[in-house]
Write a structure and sequence with these properties.
The chain is α/β, with parallel strands linked by helices. It has one domain: 3-Layer(aba) Sandwich (Undecaprenyl pyrophosphate synthetase). Helix content is about 45%, strand content about 15%. A six-stranded parallel sheet has the order 3-4-2-1-5-6, sandwiched between helices. Helix 5 links the parallel strand 3 and strand 4. Helix 3 packs across helix 8. The protein is globular and about 55 Å long. The relative contact order is 0.20. The structure holds 3-methylbut-3-enyl trihydrogen diphosphate (2 copies) and magnesium ion (MG).
Length: about 240
């Protein structure tokens, strides 16, 4: 699969809705948490695959604003898993020149998660290979609402003229302002929805949905998705003849 990939057309930013852990576990007659634990290998594989191809940003939807409504025991297990995974993977991130970042309302995460995350971000801040962005306590509507608040405050202070508010200013005020819009979004487990992920940024993103459950997702599935992406014609509202080079 990798040989079929055109190295001149690699997406700069790949975003992933990692879905299907619970169903994967259920099929094995295990508890949902077992699925989350087995999701780590997929995260490692995809991170490695992106680094190999030269993708600059990989954003993983790890925990949504809405996921706080899950049973307490599952939320707690996910938070613990986050801490142990970061602890366990930090040396691999360093070795592979990966910089760790987050988007989302991370202040709402348990203290221990916040501490682990900031330590890992500090340690990896000078790595200049892949940037791995974890979306935690994140939702697109939360992010847009926060941006609106920031801009409104600037307007109130007289620092921003409402007539001067444009798309760039909105983008610049998003929590994810440091990441370019994704060219490719992958969602696993067969669901055909965006579930409040990167709503502003997905405006012209190519969507790739696969039935593979996240714990089964491997490098070759990533390569398959990038291969499918490279076959798409991205017209951005124009007609085919205008975009053919
Ligand atoms: C994705 O798998 C992981 C998170 C949302 C944290 P799910 O836990 O949503 O698994 P399904 O969709 O119930 O199978
Ligand atoms: C989306 O998955 C959120 C993450 C992958 C973190 P969900 O499983 O929460 O999505 P819905 O609720 O089924 O749409
Ligand atoms: Mg799900």
């Amino acid at each position: 699969m990798k040989e079929k990939i055109d190295s001149n057309n690699i997406p700069h930013h790949v975003a992933v809705i990692m879905d299907g852990n619970g169903r994967w576990a259920k099929r094995k007659g295990a508890a949902r948490i077992f699925g989350h634990k087995n999701a780590i290998q997929a995260v490692k594989d995809v991170t490695e695959g992106c680094a190999e191809l030269g993708v600059k940003y990989l954003t993983l939807y790890a925990f949504s604003t809405e996921n706080w409504s899950r049973p307490k025991i599952e939320v707690e297990a996910l938070m613990q898993l986050l801490v142990s995974t970061i602890r366990g993977e930090i040396s691999t991130l360093q070795k592979n020149n990966v910089r760790l970042q987050t988007i989302g309302d991370t202040q709402s995460l348990p203290r221990i998660c916040q501490r682990e995350l900031s330590e890992a971000m500090e340690l990896t801040k000078n790595n200049n290979g892949l940037t791995l962005v974890l979306a935690l306590s994140y939702s697109g509507r939360w992010e847009i609402t926060e941006a609106v608040k920031k801009i409104a405050t600037e307007v109130k202070k007289g620092k921003v003229d409402p007539d001067k508010i444009d798309q760039q200013l909105v983008s610049d005020n998003l929590n994810s302002h440091f990441i370019p819009d994704p060219e490719l979004l992958i969602r696993t487990s067969g669901e055909m929805r965006v579930s409040n992920f990167l709503l502003w940024q997905l405006a012209y993103t190519e969507l790739y949905m696969t039935d593979v459950l996240w714990p089964d997702f491997r490098k070759q599935h990533l390569f398959g998705a990038i291969n499918a992406f490279q076959k798409r014609e991205r017209r951005f509202g124009k007609i085919s003849e205008q975009v053919k080079s």
